[in-house]
Request: fold
Amino acid sequence: MQNNGNGSSSKIAQYKKVQNDLRRGIITGKYEVGDFLPSENELSANYGITRMTVRNALKNLEAEGLIQCKKGKGSLVKLKRKSFELLSIKGFTEIMRLKEAEIDTLFVQHPISKAWDDDFFWDLNPTEKKAGCYYMSRVRMLDNQPIMLENTYLPNLSLIGFSEATFVNNSLFDTLIVKYDIEMTGVTQKFRAISADAGLANSLSVQEGTPVLEITRKLKTNREGFFVYSFAYCITNEFMIEA
Amino acid sequence: MQNNGNGSSSKIAQYKKVQNDLRRGIITGKYEVGDFLPSENELSANYGITRMTVRNALKNLEAEGLIQCKKGKGSLVKLKRKSFELLSIKGFTEIMRLKEAEIDTLFVQHPISKAWDDDFFWDLNPTEKKAGCYYMSRVRMLDNQPIMLENTYLPNLSLIGFSEATFVNNSLFDTLIVKYDIEMTGVTQKFRAISADAGLANSLSVQEGTPVLEITRKLKTNREGFFVYSFAYCITNEFMIEA
DNA sequence: TAGTGGTCTAGACCACTGC
DNA sequence: CAGTGGTCTAGACCACTAA
Reply:
């Protein structure tokens, strides 16, 4: 065989097969972060294909963020992380930065099932609208000092037992992916600086009129039409929010 | 010549030249959104290179989001900017949203060459530090009302003629990519809500003490070790900032 | 020096689009 | 049908890395 132009036997492109095999290997831990994948020559020999075809697979994996190809060395396994899954609190000084680990989350309102507010900020599709939502309210504390109030809404769609669920790693996102296979894939976020009104001032233990950072987010998921909505209010006197 | 393995004559890869040419053509309007680029066969004939080499350029442009390759048709110009290339101003109402096009940019300080401030917010690498920087200050206006003050710093590295350069499309990012082949590839951004001090209040025509959204950004580029730094201050009474 | 990824050639057959 | 992009081959030389 001197040429098959793909599609001769298996219908699926050969580079795609290599790509899928390697991706599966990375995610399942066959290749760990910091490892190098087999070299292009090895792969082309193993699969009985040209180096160019192997390279097609590798360049795609690099674009996915799973590996980094290094000239003269090899293809390094990286395993990307999505940056928008959390609002990270950054202190102004190194000392404050070290305190990140001590941030604590406190439920003001455990998840409850309810109807959507009539004046809900985001436009809802009919399916979401009809389903109603789960609502929860949490405060992030640092040294017993509240620094962020976050109100979260999820459509009540196939979230069986959500309100009773124990949070995995004390994290909404970890819970959604582990218990419901719902993964965040993108975000639209809007920012404002506002003055704390009486209610907000009380929740965050600051004076009325203090400038507060408002972050309004709509998170896209791997489930079509399923979005997570979040409204966060942050005191940024001593911290910045990385988003 | 049956093979040159690149680098024989010009030192810059041929696919890179094609890629830069096409990108420049798209951004400057030679190829408009909705147009098709010349076919792979045309390009390979015009440049005197293989179709595989042309394809390398096209796949990269597709990854950049500038084109979409369609089997049986051609390479469609899309010109989708990276979302972090601009801080988008969103009105609270549909009417305000329509006004987006009327946003105007006004230079408070045209690009000047200077040394970095001693207390510059971000850590600078030695190369940046030694090179000094270009600094500029711009105000975004809507209906003659200032809504955002943005101070931008770029390291003075291989930016020949930058301060005299006319901005392409009145855009810093378009200028960098068209004139210097510098493309933004990522961003780290931090947010705060602060009170307007006297200077800021004056620049933005608001009362002292008004809540102002501060956005501090470090933009990564395709040039190793070359970052663009931006400090933006936004009035968010009537608008939100999407970032 | 041997091995790796980066670039490139000069062909080929395929699936898809539009006339 | 001709033209397009998608996939693939079997080579090649290069720059870089590490022993």
Observations:
- Residues 1-7, 13-15, 49-53, 56, 70-73 of chain A lie near DNA strand D (CB under 10 Å from a C1').
